[in-house]
Design a protein that fits this description.
By secondary structure, this protein is of the alpha/beta class. It is built from 15 helices and 27 strands. It has a domain of about 230 residues: Ribosomal Protein L25, Chain P. The strands form seven sheets. The protein has a seven-stranded mixed β-sheet with strand order 12-25-26-27-23-24-13. A seven-stranded mixed β-sheet has the order 21-18-19-20-14-17-22, with no helix packed on it. A four-stranded antiparallel β-sheet has the order 4-5-6-7. The longest helix has 16 residues. It is elongated and about 105 Å long. Bound molecules: adenosine-5'-triphosphate and magnesium ion (MG) (2 copies). The site of adenosine-5'-triphosphate (ATP) has 14 residues, from helix 3, strand 8 and strand 10.
């Protein structure tokens, strides 16, 4: 895994730090509580929380809750959970709405210093004043020069209910000559007939993003206000407002957004996938919301590692799903234990072993990391192998099990050779394979088989195997850019985005992995592991893929999600 601090040590973020190295570091992650966080937000979380941690500062989690129409309780909780899951602890959890009184006072102050006025123009009129569609000349409206006292009493009238929404609003008196649209007398306050999540019906006037954001940053003494590049032009109005009100001025700097191709992230589109029953919910493992990635089994450390690998500059980064998966795979390869799992089992009876034959075989949890330890699996007369590891007819270039052919069983001392098999006459599927154990005579050397396969033995005394339902996920969309498909993204849905193996079997090492989870013990996962086992149970199923335990295992059964395949092009 990549050093999760590499992005702070050099490049864009190191330079941004240097610009205000004189101040104690305070940053903030300011989500609007109007939806679930997605992979793009993990970049903002990693940057803001990571920057503060790296520089010995603090980061606030600030709910930017000035738009009462879209907010819901469940989002507040979910956002906090995801920040925690990624391993960060907010210095404090704040709400923009907690500042409504202060903001209102500053709005009056802005009017008093003649830098704001109450306007009654329509949207269309304002548009024309800003030059209109054809970028014509810009001009002031008749309200711009009304006396300060008049604006002040009109603003109070807005607050006390004299006006309906859109009949009046407060505008900043900026600079229409400036080439930057963010200086064209932006709206500071508007009237909304809405009940606010926290302030109820106390307010009829609500501050806009442009008015609120920089001032909340200022109240919290944010030293480095990091946002995405769509806000580059807003930097001017940000600075203008702090200067106009003579308050502490944080430094805004902009980094490029993280975008994923081959999926959709917008709330509206995911909402549609759910309502049309393409996916089950916001945490469906095929989605790229953070709740979905967690459920799928992607470790939080892998997400942080991925953000570091992508790096932070001012450029927007478009990331393909395969690149994300490569990063996750690299992370899992070094951190999770290994097990044997059979997706589609067929029984193999080793005819020449006694009925009660039992050999205990020691398997390392990871051949590359001996410190992960070992575990014992039983080897008996009846075992399961995967249907794909047996062929009814042998051929020269085939090295797994077939009548007359030998194959190695991982970690079992000697190979087995298939003799016969039986088939279900109706389905044509192989139902049982018979084999012999090729244990040579004492002192005789044996030929090592060309291939080794995974297996799980039947053993009542060892409670083996463990049965599981395995969910294998493929990309949810067929193309790289689902939105560009004729008819829209819904027409691009991959009909095979989920394959279910309901009879999978796993060796008993799973029990120990569950007991010892989380592997590895990461900052954010420590507490979660105590709460619910399933969230941190991950392993590599040898020769199959990386898996994690799904939330549906809570009932006591074992349900596994494929996190990623073992190799990039596998399992498509
Ligand atoms: P969306 O429309 O996708 O929800 P948003 O900008 O409205 O995005 P916010 O809830 O305002 O989302 O996001 C909180 C923070 O996360 C903001 O600082 C925002 O800039 C940042 N952020 C959102 N999406 C991304 C992204 N794709 N890459 C990087 N940062 C992002
Ligand atoms: Mg936003
Ligand atoms: Mg948003």
């Amino acid at each position: 895994p990549t050093d999760p601090n590499s992005m702070f040590k050099e490049g864009f973020l190191a330079a941004v730090y240097q610009e205000r190295a004189d101040l104690p570091v305070f940053t903030r992650f300011p989500p609007e509580p109007n939806g679930y966080l997605h992979i793009g937000h993990s970049k903002a979380i990693a940057i803001n929380f990571g920057f503060a941690r790296f520089h010995g500062g603090q980061c606030y989690l600030r709910y930017d809750d000035t738009n009462p129409e879209a907010e819901e309780e469940k989002y507040f909780t979910a956002i906090q959970e995801m920040v925690h899951w990624l391993g960060f602890k907010p210095f404090d959890i704040t709400y923009s709405s907690d500042n409504f009184d202060k903001l209102y006072e500053l709005a009056e102050k802005l009017i008093q210093v003649d830098k704001a006025y109450v306007c009654h123009c329509t949207d269309a009129e304002v548009k024309l004043q800003r030059g209109g569609e054809n970028h014509g000349p810009r001009y002031a409206c008749s309200h711009r020069n009304r006396p300060v006292e008049e604006s002040l009493s009109e603003f109070r009238a807005m607050r006390s209910g004299k006006y309906k929404p859109k009949e009046a609003f407060l505008r900043m008196k900026q600079n229409l000559e400036d080439g930057n649209p963010q200086m064209w007398d932006l709206t500071a306050y508007r009237i909304l007939d809405a009940t606010h999540h926290r302030t109820g019906n106390k307010w009829r006037v609500y501050p806009t993003y442009d008015f609120t954001h920089c001032l909340c940053d200022s109240f919290e003494k944010i030293s480095h206000s990091l946002c995405t590049t769509e806000f580059i032009l807003s930097r001017t109005s940000y600075d203008w407002l702090c200067d106009a009100l003579e308050v502490f001025k944080p430094m805004q700097r902009e980094y490029g957004r993280l975008k994923m191709t081959g999926t959709v992230l917008s709330k509206r589109k995911i909402g549609k996938l759910i309502s049309e029953k393409v996916v089950r919910d916001w945490d469906d493992p095929r989605l790229y919301t953070l709740v979905a990635l967690r459920r799928r089994g992607v470790p939080p450390g892998a997400i942080l590692s991925f953000v570091n690998e992508v790096g932070v500059t001012t450029a927007v980064t478009n990331i393909q799903i395969v690149r994300f998966e490569t990063s996750v795979r690299r992370y899992l390869e070094l951190t999770v234990p290994r097990l044997m799992l059979i997706l589609d089992p067929i029984p193999v009876i080793i005819e020449d072993l006694p009925d009660d034959y039992l050999e205990e075989i020691e398997l390392p949890f990871s051949p590359k990391s001996p410190e992960m330890g070992t575990h014992i699996v039983p080897f008996t007369k009846t075992l399961y192998i995967d249907r794909t590891d047996f062929r009814e007819v042998d051929s020269k270039d085939y090295f797994r099990l077939a009548p007359g052919k030998s194959v190695g069983l991982l970690k079992v001392p000697f190979p087995i050779r298939a003799t016969t098999f039986t088939k279900d006459p109706e389905t044509g599927l192989v139902t049982e394979v018979r084999a012999v154990y090729e244990k040579p005579e004492e002192g005789v050397t044996f030929k090592k088989p060309k291939a080794y396969i995974q297996w799980v033995a039947l053993s009542a005394s060892h409670n083996s195997p463990i049965k599981a339902e395995v969910r294998v996920f493929n990309p949810l969309f067929r193309s790289e850019n689902p939105d560009a498909v004729e008819g829209g993204f819904m027409k691009d849905v991959n009909p095979n985005s989920q394959e279910i193996y309901s009879n999978a079997v796993i060796e008993t090492g799973l029990e120990e992995i569950r007991r010892r989870a989380p592997w590895p013990e990461e900052a954010g996962e420590k507490d979660i592991g105590k709460k619910a086992g399933w969230e941190t149970v991950r392993f590599q199923a040898l020769r199959v893929a990386y898996f994690a335990m799904d939330k549906d295992s809570e009932g006591g059964s074992v349900v596994l999600n494929r996190i990623v395949s073992l190799k990039e092009d596998a399992g498509k």
